[in-house]
Specification:
Layout lengths: L19 E2 L11 E2 L2 H14 L25 H18 L3 E11 L4 E10 L4 E7 L1
Antiparallel strand pairs: 1-2, 3-4, 4-5
Length: 133
């Protein structure tokens, strides 16, 4: 009888080698390192969402360009437009990520929006990313 083994990225084999830098930068040391590809992909998605167009050298179309929504009021139509834009941008720039749920929750008293993303990477377990915009 065949046994199905879970997919494992070759970079995750050596537990002592860091793959990238974790976001946000709030560790005791200067930069906190990520040692798994799943955690690094989550950091890359956060970096992509918080980057605006023309901020990255040699790749001017990189980023979700949230600055365009900065001074718009929090309405149903602006929340829907932002949700569609983020969903399309993440699918376009991270084709190996399957988004199972992307929700934006407006918080009117603080004029912020809570972004929750449930995603699956490499057919692995569902991961959750939570950002306050």
């Amino acid at each position: 009888m065949a046994i199905r083994l879970p997919n494992k990225n070759p970079l995750d084999i050596n537990k002592r080698v860091a793959i990238g830098v974790a976001i946000p930068f709030n560790a005791d040391e200067v930069f906190k390192s990520n040692y798994t590809t799943i955690e690094q992909i989550k950091s890359n998605i956060i970096n992509f969402i918080l980057t605006n167009n023309n901020e990255r050298l040699f790749n001017p179309n990189y980023g979700s360009n949230l600055r365009a929504f900065l001074f718009e009021g929090i309405t149903e139509s602006s929340i829907d437009a932002l949700e569609i834009k983020l969903n399309n941008d993440i699918k376009k720039n991270f084709p190996f990520v399957d988004i199972s749920l992307l929700t934006l929750t407006p918080m009117y008293d603080t004029n912020t929006v809570q972004l929750d993303i449930n995603l699956s990477i490499y057919n692995s377990n569902i991961q959750n990313i939570q950002i306050t915009l």
